Amino acid sequence: MPVLGHLKTIHPCLPSRAKTRSHGGVPVQRRCKGSRSAAGDILGWFVGPVSATTLPTGSTALSTAYSAPRTRPNCGDTYIVPVARVHEIGTALRLVSVLLYAAWAHALTEQTGPLVHVEAFNTHVFIVNSLKIARELFEKRSLVYSSRPWVPMFELTELTDFVVGQPYGEEWRWHRRTMDKQFRRESAKLYRSIHTQKIHAFLRRLNDHPEDFAAHVRALPGATIMSTVYGYDVPEYTQDRFIEVAEEYNRRVTVSFTPGAQIVDFFPFLRHFPAWVPGCGFQKSAQEIRALKDEVKNQPFGYALEHKALVKMLEEAQAGTDDEMEMLRRVSGVSYSAASDTTVSALMTFFLAMALYPAIQRKAQTEIDDLLGAPGGKFPTFEHKASLPYVEAVLREVLCWRPVLPLSVPHATSAEDDYGGYFIPKETTVVMNIWALTHEESTYGSDPNAFNPDRFLKPDGTLLEANHTSLAFGLGPRICPGRFYAEDVLWLTFVSVLAFFDIGKAMTTEGVESEVDAANPPYSDTTISHPLPFKCSIKPRSTVVKDLLGGVSLQE
Ligand code: HEM
Prior knowledge:
Keywords: Heme, Iron, Metal-binding, Monooxygenase, Oxidoreductase
Radius of gyration: 24 Å
Shape: globular
Pathway: Secondary metabolite biosynthesis
Bound molecules: protoporphyrin IX containing FE
Helix content: 40-55%
Binding site for heme: 480
């Protein structure tokens, strides 16, 4: 079989300029003595840098790699990986994408160095695995490290309409200021009555149909954000056009932007070719995504203006110029995409963790019961937040144990830089490995892989000062603007579910608890990582709870 390409992973530290040859301004390292020939079997190749078991399936690449034991590669080794035994180019490109993920996954383990360089098809990616370096690059040197990589599919699908895809510069600043204004800590508090209303409706659905908990979880963040941004109430239990389009947009964007998923990612000149040219089917896909994006941006915004919804963000739109109106359309348009899937992931991790760690669930419930009385007596509210440190610790641990975006959203350099004597060229992709940062033993203790909220508490049960949660939202000027909002939705959902329900492992048909590996439950290897579908048992904690939630009137 022909060899179609090479993927090099360089482990685990960057070469200094003095020690390496330079190729196109980028350091090149010596080849590892143990490298095998280009005719090698692809599985055989990965015995070295990446676990062989991660490769053929792809879908389990990250989760497998988290646990796969492996030996530490020698500092400075270069692994040349042949992409062989591949029958057609599409498969080859997908495979390269899997290889990239697998290489990144490898970087997730503590055996690698604090900074890893991966190169594929002349694309250079630096992965930051240490909090110290992350703070240095993304915070102290934020002028250089706050842009986004240029990806042909971003351009073709006009992702740069949205703040998340915009390069660092004036337009991004303008969008970002508006976003920050609407979602900063104080503003986020204004949306708490919306959260309360939507979360109470969610509890009622959970009570009525616990077996459909995943569907209820999926609906909740969308309902809160649509109400917050557009004053639009998503109808319950029925198909909704705004939600359908936004979900379809999210799905298409996720699939299309998997690294290497499109041939145009490797051969950018193809973006100038029309869709009918063989191999340019990505053009049709890009056109469909553009149409969905326009719908996401325009339709609910039109609704809000038509109904004169006095939503905070849109108050300014009434008197805005055309440019300001377009900016508001975009800023509100990105909110659903950014808020929904991310929050769903964290909510699902919560249900999973509670099913897997019953003692922790009991401890949180005891704290709540001590404050509110017997289950079903009272609804928890934001007023109770400061008195429930253990619940807050559960929230922090959910976000750190299985970070929603394990590799964040890629950054890019807007100028060349030297770090620790190593050269990082302009327009290099730089990935903040949130997973590695939230599993650093020096910060999180000796067993960072266990679900253990106590790591955020002092011996007297009060919370540690440092807000570790924020790492799950990134660092520096591109830190998630929706973090306060998201934390509010998550906190009230967690505390309410714990107050009213017991979550346990699902029973098999034989009546025994189904087995899940508590230390390493399977997750998807997508940019936003989700627990793979699982079942659990959800039961009201008392008949009082059942009656309370079954009642027609729910507290606002
Ligand atoms: C659990 C929920 C969430 C998590 C874990 C999360 C995490 C993140 C992360 C890691 C980034 C990338 C930061 C970077 O590039 O360094 C990000 C960006 C972003 N998030 Fe969130 N997010 C969540 C919810 C939300 C919500 C609710 C909103 C809006 C209301 C939001 C809006 C955004 C936007 C607009 C960006 C792009 C910022 C920029 O490029 O300047 N996110 N988020």
